[in-house]
Structure formats: structure tokens, C-alpha cells
Design brief:
- The structure is a single chain.
- The chain is of the alpha/beta class and about 450 residues long.
- It has helices at about 10-20, 35-45, 55-60, 75-85, 90-95, 110-125, 140-145, 160, 190-195, 215-225, 270-285, 290-300, 330-335, 360-365, 380-385, 395-405, 430-440; strands at about 1-5, 25-30, 50, 65, 90, 100-105, 130-135, 150-155, 170-175, 210, 230-235, 245, 250-255, 255-265, 310-315, 320, 345, 365-375, 390-395, 415.
- Helix 15 links the parallel strand 18 (about 365-375) and strand 19 (about 390-395).
- It is globular, with a radius of gyration of 22 Å.
- Cell wall formation. Catalyzes the addition of glutamate to the nucleotide precursor UDP-N-acetylmuramoyl-L-alanine (UMA).
Amino acid sequence: MKLVVLGAGESGIGAAILGKKKGFEVFVSDKGIITQKYKQVLLNNEIPFEEGNHSEDKIFEADIVMKSPGIPDKVAIIQELIERKIPVISEIEFASKYTNGIIVGITGSNGKTTTTMLVNHILKKAKINAGMGGNIGESFAAQVAENEYDVHVLELSSFQLDGIVNFTPHIAIITNITPDHLDRYNYKFENYVNSKFRITENQTAQDFLIFDADDEVILNWIKNNKVKATLLPFSLKKELEQGAYLKDDNIILKYIKEEKIMSISTLALKGKHNTKNAMAAAMTASLLKVRKNTIRESLEDFEGAEHRLESVLKINGVQYVNDSKATNVNATFYALDSMKTPTVWIVGGVDKGNDYLELMPLVREKVKAIICLGIDNQKIVHTFNNVVDLIVETAGAEEAVKVAYKIAEKGDTVLLSPACASFDLFESYEDRGNKFKQAVREL
């Protein structure tokens, strides 16, 4: 059997290693240049590869093609493969055939990384043999190839879910759904929503779907579509017949029996959205038979994800916060919502069809100045120039931080929360966050 892997990033390399281990004849093709780290892995494993182009003659010989989530379905080579009836799947679909471990799949527009890390943290504390991967850290395929985990905790993007056929998580979590990546979904929000809900399409009544019952988009979809899984919602606003909810500021889990887990005042991560992430993680751990005390302790001592509302330094009474992972408007909404002081907001990058108007009330209330960090900032300037007196355009993290340093006064917060992708000026949101942190340290 011939396996062709398109794209030699984390997921592609993982699939190639697993494919070789399972006896496939593997060929890796990347239209760009393969990084040295991944090239070395391919050479060490004696897996043939090409970079800088796709050799169609070799690719069309495939029995099965694993495509990287970064490659859109509409590119010519994928369309041609589909016409030739050569199956094109995602790495999570490919890897799921080769594990007997329980899969916990976590998707959503925001909060999925934090929730994935929370679940993993609780399971590790409970001494459960768990691996974390997918859209974060190591690829699922590499994990399956190299370890026998009892539980796989996977962060899943809509792009990864687009390529599934039989992939089924035993526990699926949808944290929330807000417009994002619309450029990949023909600018139709419903296409993106359907994509997220693919996480539950193969689930049965023995499986679980944990979701935000305060999210209208999710509720509407569930009302109008058949879900076979057992539904376990979570809510900050209402008591539920089953699921996770708040009672007197305590997190209550209710499934089969009712359990009080902890007071939200002792959660390590603050903010309403993090309370929801904690509820989803607690419910997951409870289904996996983790003791209540272990869940509580884990949620009390968890350290957050890097680049997500990360405190960097306080300089002259000004707090600098790195929220570079906020690559969409909704994530930035959470960040601004949690600001308690006048804020100098650094925003901008590659706009994925953003509507900044929903940020208007928060900007009016909290933001004293805006620093644009992107090549094209027209939309941001146009949206906010009537509500914020000072808007400055910059073309790099160092310049943005220097301008912020001049503007901010004692008691203010300088917040990098871009609401955009980073690819115009940076390699990734991590690169953007690291350059921001570096610039702050050099002040």
C-alpha cells in the first residue's frame, strides 16, 4: 500500500512515521521548504521525500493520501485526487485506526488549548497514562507510533476535522463557536459551524458531547441536527438537569450523581471563559473516573498556556500582557473583558474577515490608545478612530512596545491581543508573542 503525505509539518511527519511503522510504502511531498528538524527525522527513518514541488506522477500512484490541515481542499492537486477517487484523509483519521486508547477530542473557536491542557494536567495528576497532542504539541500520529497511551487528549481544529471519515472521540468537547477562518469556508459561517460539529458525527449513545449551553450557535445546531452522543452541557447562567453549572459560585457536576467540585474563587485561571474551560475539563475527568479531590487540586494549581493572557513584566507600574494566541475577535473580546485598568491595546495582523464592532463597548470603556501591529491596519483605524483618541501604526513588535512604553502611565496595562493571524510580519503567533516578550524585557 502506498501512502503519500502532503505537507511535512508536525502532522505530516507524524503520519509518515506511523505509516512506515505500519508497513506502508511512504512518500512525503511538500510544496514549500521542509524545516531542518523535520528533514532530519525523515532521513533518520529512511522515508523518501521531496520539497519545493509536488511530483504529480508519484502522488497519483497513492492508495491513500494524508494531507496537512494547512492545505485547503480547493487547491488543484486535492481536487484532482478526489476526481481520481484516491482517498484524502487527515492525520487524525489515519492515526485513530491504530490506537485502542480512549480519545478525548476538544474543539471550539477559543479556549480549546487551555481546556486541552487542563484535561491533560488533571489526568497526569490522577496518574492516568495520557498523551496530549493534535493541534498542540506532538501530532496524534507520532504519539500513536511511539507510545501506548491509555487516553489521548487531542486539541482539534476545524481543518483537522474536515478530513475525517470514521474518527470518533469517546468524549468530545466544543468550547464555543464564533466566526473564524471564514476565508477557508467560502465566507459562510454555517460551513465553519458544520465543520466543528464533525467531532460528534461518528459518536454513539455510549459517547459524550460536552458543550457550552450559553452559546446560541451551538444550541441552534443541536436543536436542528441529530446528535447520538449523550449530551453534557455546561453553563454559567442556568442550572442544568445534567452537565456542569454554578450554584452559589461553586462548580457542580451532575451526571448519574451530583457532586460539588470547588468554589470558582480558588480556580487558578480567572475570567468567565476560564470557568467554562474548567467545567468542561472537570466533567471530562469525572467521566474518566478521576476523584473529585484530584480534579479540584489540579484546577487550583494549573499554570496557563503560554501566549494566552500571559503576564510578562511590570515596568514603572505598567503591566505588560502577552495574548498573542488571540488570533480572532472573540479571543480578544475575552482579553479586553478581563482588563481591570486603562489599557494600551496592541492589535492587528492578517484579518480573516473580522468584524471588530462587537469589541466596541469594551474598547470604549477600557482602551486609552490603540497600537496597530500589521501591514494593513485600515479596517482597525476606520472602526475605532471615533472612539479612541490615539491610534498609532507600527511595523514590528519592538516598535510597538516602544510606542506603548511612551504612552502608558503608571497603573495602565499594555495588552498584545491581536485578533488576527500573524503571518504578515511573523512566522506564527508564538513567534509574535516571543518577539513581544523580548522587546518588553529590553525596555
